[in-house]
Amino acid sequence: MSHIDWLSIYNFFISSDSITLVDCAKKFGVHIDYIRQKAAKEGWTAKKLQVRQTALTLMEQQTANEIVKRNQEHIKQARLLQGTALEAIAEKGLRPETFDVARKALEVGQKLERAALGMDKPITPSVELANNKGQTLRITWGDLTPIADMVQGENHLELVKSYDSY
What we know:
This protein is α+β, with helices and mostly antiparallel strands. 60% of the residues lie in helices and 13% in strands. The chain folds into three domains: 6-42; 49-117, no CATH class; 126-162, no CATH class. The chain has helices spanning 6-14, 21-28, 32-42, 44-92, 96-117; strands at 126-128, 136-140, 146-152, 157-162. A four-stranded antiparallel sheet has the order 1-2-3-4, with no helix packed on it. A hairpin with a 7-residue loop joins strand 1 (126-128) and strand 2. Helix 2 (21-28) crosses helix 3 and helix 4 (44-92) runs antiparallel to helix 5.
């Protein structure tokens, strides 16, 4: 048998979720049993999963960074619209033909800014649960602002402390 380029076979295998060891055997003309032995010995399947997970994590990070950049741009645009509307109101003396345009620009700017900042999303409380009776449960808003501390009794919850979150 001629020299087997294991690195090329391995790279081909991990390059796609849909590529199997049988596909590798066919493409490189190597008996499937040899490939299975090599793959098992070196943990190719686990490495393939790790590569896929790393790629997903990197993609999620890049997507999150893009969302942050877009939100920052939208906030700038929204504030520019609001500033332009306020200038128009001040300079035009609120004449009827320009007031509506200024009002709409303010509304659009505020709506865009609130959306970019996530201000209009409903926040629902979450609960950190303890498995042991007598331990404190903290109830928080979605942004982790505390609402109340409670203690789990026999068949009830007792309020320990209430936080003013308004």
